[in-house]
Each structure stands twice: as structure tokens, then as C-alpha cells.
Design goal:
Helices cover 35% and strands 13% of the residues. The chain is α+β, with helices and mostly antiparallel strands. The strands form two sheets. The protein has a three-stranded mixed sheet with strand order 2-1-5, sandwiched between helices. It has a two-stranded antiparallel sheet with strand order 3-4. Strand 3 (88-89) and strand 4 form a beta hairpin.
Length: 157
């Protein structure tokens, strides 16, 4: 068990300090992730918003940090349809819902979190950077906001 935790933590940056960012535990292992994604795409088809698939886990400090930022009013103003998908511990072979990122062209998840931005039609626009969010807790609020604003198709204020 300790070996699995060590492997899991290798895919998610951890720091012993008190976080300088909000944290949220929004990844539900019992959620129907497929239904949640399909519902977000249906809402996006009506609203014209992009869909933000946030693939992480509550055990992961970086996943919780990213979710925490996304729940703040500043990030809510980016107007994504957000879906939090619990992917378990993919780096140890204990992943779940991994067919969802594959559905949109992200063939492999080696750590958490990963983030996919989809057009209302379901086309991924950031396959090249989707897996680069593994150290989200070490990114500044400004850097995260600027990148997500650009991916949303809106300039950062």
C-alpha cells in the first residue's frame, strides 16, 4: 500500500507548506462521468460555451488546488461548462473513467490532474497541453487564469 501511495504521489506534486491557493474536493468516484460529460456538451451546444474537463482525484493536492481556483468567482467568469472527473490513480494502473479522455483524443494519462478543453461540438482544443497540469498547485493564479482565458476563446482581463 505504501508503495502505491508513493507511486501515486510521484504523479502529483506535493508540498508540505500550507497552500497559497484555495482547494476543493470535487472529484466524485461515484458520479456518472459519461452522463456528466454528455450533459455539459448539451449545455454547451445551447450556450456556445466551451467545456472544461478537469480530470483529477481528491487524493491529489494539485487536483484539489486546480478545482479550488476554478470555483472562485474570477474563474467562473470565464464561463466554461465544467465537469470534474475522478480518474483515480492512473499512474499506478488504478485509474477509472480513462475512456473519457481517450474519447476526445488524449490517449494516455500518466498523472493528475489533466485538463481538456472542448468546443461545444466536442472537439478537444488543447491536446498538446492537456497533461501539463500535473503541478497545478505550483502555478500562479494569474498564469492559470491567462491560460484558461485563452483556451476559452476570451482574452484575460
Amino acid at each position: 500500500m505504501a508503495g502505491m501511495l508513493a507511486l501515486a504521489l510521484a504523479g502529483c506534486a506535493t508540498t508540505p507548506e500550507v497552500p497559497a491557493h484555495p482547494e476543493a474536493r470535487l472529484y466524485s468516484a461515484s458520479a456518472d462521468a459519461w452522463a456528466d460529460v454528455d450533459a455539459a456538451l448539451a449545455r454547451a451546444a445551447v450556450s456556445g460555451k466551451r467545456v472544461l474537463l478537469v480530470m483529477g482525484a481528491n487524493w491529489c493536492h494539485d487536483s484539489r488546488a486546480l478545482a479550488g481556483w476554478l470555483e472562485t468567482p474570477r474563474f467562473a467568469a470565464l464561463a466554461y461548462e465544467i465537469v470534474y472527473i475522478d480518474v483515480g490513480v492512473p499512474q499506478t494502473g488504478a485509474g477509472r473513467n480513462l475512456d473519457i479522455p481517450r474519447r476526445f483524443g488524449l490517449a494516455e494519462m500518466q498523472g493528475t490532474p489533466a485538463l481538456l478543453v472542448l468546443t461545444p461540438e466536442g472537439r478537444a482544443v488543447n491536446l498538446d497541453s492537456a497533461a501539463t497540469w500535473r503541478k497545478a498547485a505550483s502555478r500562479s493564479e494569474e498564469a492559470i487564469h491567462t491560460e484558461l482565458a485563452a483556451l476559452a476563446g476570451r482574452p484575460a482581463p
